[in-house]
Amino acid sequence: MTEFPTSPSQHERGKRNAFTRFLDGVEWLGNLLPHPVTLFALLALGIVLLSGVFGWMGLAVVDPRPAGAPGVAEDGMIRAVSLVNGDGIRRIFTGLVDNFTGFAPLGVVLVAMLGVGVAEKSGLLSAAVRSMVLGAPPKLVTVAIVFAGIISNTASEVGYVVLIPLAGAIYYALGRHPLAGMAAAFAGVSGGYSANLLIGTIDPLLAGITQEAAQLIDPDYRVLATANWYFMFASTFLITAIGSLVSIYIVEPQLGAYDKAKADPDVLDEGMMTPLDNTERKGLRWAGLAMLAVFALMALTLWPEWGVLRNAETGDRMDSPFFDGFVVWILIFFVTIGYAYGRAAKTMKSDRDVIDAMAGALSSLGLYIVLVFFAAQFVAFFGWTNLGGITAVTGAQFLVDTGLTGPVVFFLFILLCGLINLSLGSASAQWAVTAPIFVPMLMLIGYSPEAIQAAYRIGDSTTNVITPMMSYFGLILAWATRYQKDLGVGTLIAMMLPYSMFFITAWSVFFYVWTFVIGLPVGPGSPTYYPG
Q: How many CB atoms lie within 10 A of CB 280?
């Protein structure tokens, strides 16, 4: 992999303004944080120790839920429960495994990745991205790149590993600045991370975390994988438009004419620009037919009165097994279209190839599984000790006392999530830490977990492109230095900063208008308000 400097040169720093110097400070502070796994382990340990202190102090708040509701104590109080005693230690030891295996996001992500692995290994996802971008008219290349980046979020590694370097090669071949192409792709893949036309692996993952947090207030509350689908579907077109305009009118003009002398001599990989061959086009046609077949099957199980996946008691389509088990459809969809492509393109010949693809997808999740183990303990301990509920009630009371209970509170919440994301770049890791605090807090002032999750996703996505803490940031920097050898971290951040600023502003306003002005739901069966 290409070597690259870890910081801008002194000459580059001399030209930097106050805001980009602030980002350098955030980067420095972020580098002081431990590994996310270590961070969750320390947080879990910290919760145990704090529970001992607050339990000894007798910390308690009045429970705002009605008497007799599930989980409400007889005296109507929420009291801190200590885990630093015999009962607490026994509970930790006996519950450690169940905390891990029962953690809602784990199962759904593993199942979804089985399907995505087949589509990726067969070559379908790579061919689809190349077809989408290379087949676009020259004037629409930027729009196609940003849009393809957003769609690639169904399986994010494809966008990072395939589309971003491909975008640089396309711009290079067209005589345009390659870094502008990479910036457009990076903005779509990472800045617009939560927007998509399809339900991806991040949807059930975040929904599971949100559900765990919501159940601190309402033990029976369920959050579906499709909780934000309507809003994220519409957001795809908003982010495509904004990303394209920022690329064309701000980023590319600022970069100016490209000096080829700064590039690695071997920078242009001709293979990345190769149009689809007949075999790949045949594979895409068969994958398209398979996709239509899956959609038809989905419709048959939900739309007719006799649909087997409608609610058996009420006949309702939204509150139904169809959406409760939507992760199964993700599995069926990607296995079906991936295998159809593989058979037609001759990249998959038997069931063994499918099995190998599934095994390969799961083998890449080793670090994620380790992270989930410690995240699950943190979430469980937070619930056991009642510190989550106490924090939520205290925070909600603060919002009430200050008058910050109206929808405007979401602007502050989105901004705060964006700032936290600068130091904790993983969407799931950040939400696992913050959801047990913010979901109950905002539920107690009347907003639904689904709406809260949608707002979180805006803040989390929009600052991905300007934080070195994002897991693929180093990879993007390495790709970029093939076109500009002296490129530093600060240069990349400054190049991506306009996307972050325009995305978070426009997307927040769009969320406010969508949810509170027009009154549209963020997803199927997703209320805007929580009745309590």
A: 22
Q: In whole angstroms, what is the distance from residue 31 CA to residue 34 CA?
A: 8
Predicted pLDDT of residue 12: 39
Contact 76, 63 (CB under 8 A): yes
Angle at 324 between CA 379 and CA 218, to 5 degrees: 45
DSSP 455: H
Rounded Cα gap, residues 515 and 525, in angstroms: 14
Cα 136 to chain centroid, rounded: 27
Instruction: Give me the DSSP letters along 94-160.
Output: HHHHHHHHT-HHHHHHHHHHHHHHHHHHTTHHHHHHHHHHHTS-GGGHHHHHHHHHHHGGGGHHHII
**CA 247, CA 495: separation in Å to the nearest integer?**
10
pLDDT in tens, 368-417: 788 789 888 987 898 899 887 787 777 767 766 777 778 888 998 998 88
The phi and psi torsions of 104 (rounded to 5 degrees) equal -55, -45
The two tokens of residue 474 are 């180093």
The Cα–Cα gap between 336 and 116 comes to: 10
> What is the C-alpha to C-alpha distance for residues 40 and 379, in angstroms, rounded to an integer?
10
Length of the chain: 532
Q: Find residue 61's DSSP bridge partners.
A: 78
CB 217 within 8 A of CB 389: yes
Helix (H, G, I), strand (E, B) or coil at 529: strand
Q: How far apart are CA 35 and CA 64, in angstroms?
A: 37
Place of tokens 């029976």: 220
Q: For residue 380, give the nearest of 209, 225, 201 by alpha carbon.
A: 209
Q: Give the tens place of pLDDT for each residue, 93-108.
A: 999 999 999 876 688 7
d(CA 474, CA 212) in angstroms, rounded, equals: 32
Amino acid at 171: Y
Nearest to 455 by CA among 407, 399, 508, 503: 508
